[in-house]
Design brief:
Blueprint lengths: L1 H32 L4 H27 L5 H9 L5 H25 L15 H24 L4 H15 L8 H7 L13 H29 L1
Helix pairs in contact: 1-2, 1-4, 2-6, 3-4, 4-7, 5-6, 5-8
Length: 224
């Protein structure tokens, strides 16, 4: 039992590290090859991220449920699907893994390993975009697990790929990802001073989602 829990934490660490390597590395490569065309760079970045997510969720879901995201882990904990110790271990593993993934990309592309982003992502529109994006992601996961469990990996991957394009915040939806992306001054970076804006939107969206789930579950019980 202890080995299984250890493996799940390791899976979250490795999965999140690879996810951030895919996000950051594809951002660097796409930006370099696009010759200043931001649309082409975003296309390459979004496709690579979606493809990477599909593979990671498919392979690691049987081990750790493939959260790779503190808010997904928090929701699972809130609804008693995991225990408090696992919540803490997952969040630590996800955050450290995300940072390691970014550092690995810097090493691969011969960039300074330690750096911070200067890319500004601020304003109410960005905040609202990130709130809405997080609500959408959590809803897709929740509905997918209930009604299309075998398709969850595909559903999440396609949602994130689309989210890069229809949201002004480009669909971060993940505190660990947000923190890690503040540590890279590349195409996918976010200025450190904007991190709190993003994470606050993600947290607010998480509690709105939990409230909506509780309201809907009460109505369902009443109807029955």
């Amino acid at each position: 039992m202890k080995l299984k829990k250890f493996n799940s934490v390791v899976a979250e660490f490795i999965g999140t590290a690879i996810l951030l390597a895919v996000i950051t590395g594809s951002g660097v490569m796409a930006d370099t090859l696009a010759n200043g065309n931001s649309a082409v760079a975003l296309l390459g970045n979004s496709i690579a991220t979606g493809a990477g997510l599909f593979v990671l969720i498919t392979l690691l879901a049987p081990i750790s449920n493939a959260h790779f995201n503190p808010i997904v882990t928090f929701v699972s904990w809130y609804f008693n699907k995991i225990k408090t110790k696992q919540l803490i271990n997952y969040i630590i593993a996800q955050t450290l893994g995300a940072i390691l993934g970014v550092f690995a990309v810097h090493l691969m592309f011969a960039l300074p390993i330690l750096q911070t982003s200067t890319k500004v992502r601020s304003g109410f529109g960005i905040w609202f975009s990130e709130l809405l994006a997080t609500l959408i992601l959590l809803s897709v996961i929740n509905i997918g697990v209930k009604y299309a469990k075998k398709q969850v990996a595909l559903l999440v991957a396609l949602t994130v790929t689309a989210g890069y394009w229809f949201t002004s915040s480009t669909f971060f939806c993940n505190p660990a990802v947000t923190i890690a992306r503040s540590l890279t001054n590349t195409f996918v970076g976010i200025q450190l001073s904007n991190v709190l804006l993003f994470i606050s939107a993600q947290i607010v969206a998480t509690f709105i989602f939990i409230l909506l789930v509780k309201i809907l579950s009460k109505r369902k019980r009443f109807a029955n």
